[in-house]
Write a structure and sequence with these properties.
This protein is α/β, with parallel strands linked by helices and about 260 residues long. The protein has two domains: about 120 residues, Response regulator (Rossmann fold); about 130 residues, 3-Layer(aba) Sandwich (Rossmann fold), CATH 3.40.50.2300. The chain contains ten helices and ten strands. Strand 9, helix 9 and strand 10 form a beta-alpha-beta unit.
Length: about 260
């Protein structure tokens, strides 16, 4: 991924100009556009990173926000939003929160944005063949989309909305990690994990439970099936993604020691 950003905001804004200069100082090419759908659509060769500055935007700008909400699925860009609390609340009235990479509160530390973007660019340069593959199993579509948004920067992410779909996928595709919802209708997480462990072709795939609860009874029910760990769905983004990164780091270190 190139170090290029599409900065959406009123060009006369002091903050928009400050963001532009801060990004350019860090080596980013910055394309600027007014917050108008037509202006964005008319641009050729748009970057894969969009930075939306919400200052001065209001309910009357809902068409732009609705456009971004729809376009992010078809064009697969990464969206970052900057604003005060009221402006961010306005944005997520029209843009599904799970589709947004990060939201930054004003006043803004431009250095923080560039550090996060540098991480995105760095991981995008990893050979696709080397990226780990993660399958997320959850009947909650919102949770699936949110996890995909959070993890797709570093990993190849696949989604299954039921245990049956997941098992069919695993039979045909190699996966490095399964993130499994504990509570699902029909085939629950415990049953799915039991099926995985009983199927020779993929019985050794690591599985981490995503759960809304961490009571002892739920944990003991599946301890014999050897899940790697349990992650609460209520965990902050950074803590949850760090736990997944840590899992792969530790696994890699163990493998290196054996070799």
């Amino acid at each position: 991924m190139e170090k290029r950003v599409l900065l959406i905001g009123h060009g006369k804004s002091f903050m928009v100009n400050a963001i532009e200069k801060g990004l350019e100082k860090e080596g980013y090419g910055v394309l600027m556009t007014e917050p108008e759908r037509e202006d964005i659509e008319d641009m050729e060769n748009r970057p894969n990173i969009y930075l939306l500055y919400m200052g001065d935007l209001a309910e009357s700008d809902h068409e732009l926000l609705e456009y971004l909400n729809d376009a992010i699925d078809s064009e697969r860009f990464l969206l970052y939003i900057i604003g005060n609390k009221e402006e961010l609340d306005l944005a997520i009235n029209y843009i599904a929160k799970e589709k947004v990479q990060e939201m930054y509160l004003r006043p803004l530390d431009v250095k923080l944005i560039t550090e996060n973007l540098n991480s995105v660019v760095e991981y995008s340069e990893i050979d696709d063949e080397l990226k780990k593959k993660i399958l997320i199993i959850d009947d909650d579509g919102t949770m699936l989309r949110m996890m995909r948004t959070w993890l797709s920067v570093k990993y190849h992410v696949y989604m299954a909305s039921s245990g049956k779909i997941a098992l069919s996928f695993l039979a045909k595709n190699p996966i490095d990690l399964v993130l499994l919802d504990y509570e699902m209708p029909g085939m629950d997480g415990a049953t799915v994990l039991k099926e995985i462990r009983n199927t020779p072709a993929y019985k050794d795939i690591p599985v981490i439970f995503l759960t809304a609860k961490d009571d002892k009874e739920s944990v003991m029910k599946v301890v014999g099936l050897k899940p790697e760990k349990y992650l609460l769905k209520s965990m902050p983004k950074e803590k949850l993604t760090n736990a997944i990164d840590e899992f792969f780091i530790i696994k890699s270190m163990k493998k290196a020691r054996k070799e």
